Amino acid sequence: MPAQSHQSDPRILRRRTLQTDHRCLATLLPPDIAVLDIGCGSGAITAGIAEAVGPQGYVIGVDRDAAVLELARKEHATFPHLRFELGDATNLNFRSQFDIVTAARTLQWIAEPSLAVANMKKAAKPSGIVLVLDYNHMQNEWEPNEIADHLPELFRSAGLVDIQTHIQDEIVQRGEPDFPERSAHGPTLSRISVVRLRMRDFAHNRSCEKRRGATNSWLKTVLMRQTLTMRTVTARVA
Questions:
Q1: Does a cis peptide bond (omega within 30 degrees of 0) precede residue 144?
Q2: 167: Cβ–Cβ under 8 A, 6 or more apart, which residues?
Q3: How far is 127 from 100, CA to CA, in rounded Å?
Q4: Which of 37, 165, 227, 235 has the fewest Cβ atoms within 10 angstroms?
Q5: pLDDT in tens, 175-199
Q6: pTM beyond cutoff 0.85
């Protein structure tokens, strides 16, 4: 499988923590369990999982970006029960190995999310938990970026049971230290507002360069608060 570059800004990936950026999962991690983290990126949240389950548990982080995995291995080498592997949610080889299989902010980038959920189910032990955290950008033309709304049905289609949905919106406001990065990079960019800006620019026959300039100007001077609709959906393997 060829390696692919990551969709999200590495600066954002490295700032994330289990407690603040995967809150539902943080409440479901007793010691000594096995966890698979799909789309682990730089491993910031994955390392938090490893710390939570302790040395008697084990954690595997999977990502399709070889460069960001190398960063993860260097930054989190202190956890002997944590390893990182090159892989893709649509092509997993794990079978009934994990108490929890999770993916955060990952399925929105996958063309076949139903296949990803099916593979997550296969990787989980009987009665294991499958847990996905993702966005809903509320724009059909941006699918699969409204993946959050489809997760319960994807879980049902995969044969998972005890499906529950939890609200986990992300809010960023001007004045916060990381406002420029979180509002301007990766999936945290508001699709709706940018689409409106581009429609207005096309109406005025502006060039691509001017359209980019208008978008950047809007982010720097107009945007005051951004709320990203996110949902965590959990289920169990029957």
A1: yes
A2: 230, 231
A3: 10
A4: 227
A5: 777 776 666 544 444 444 444 444 4
A6: no
Domain count, the chain: 2
Please name which of 219, 171, 172, 174 lies closest in space to residue 194, comparing C-alpha atoms: 219
CATH number of domain containing 26: 3.40.50.150
Has residue 63 been placed in a domain?
yes
- In the chain, the amino acid numbered 199 is M
- The strand pair at 225-228 and 170-173 is best described as antiparallel
Query: 177 with 156, same domain?
Result: no
- pLDDT, tens digit, 9 for 90 and up, residues 121-175: 999 999 999 999 987 754 333 344 467 778 999 999 999 999 999 988 777 788 7
Residue 190 belongs to what domain range? 172-221
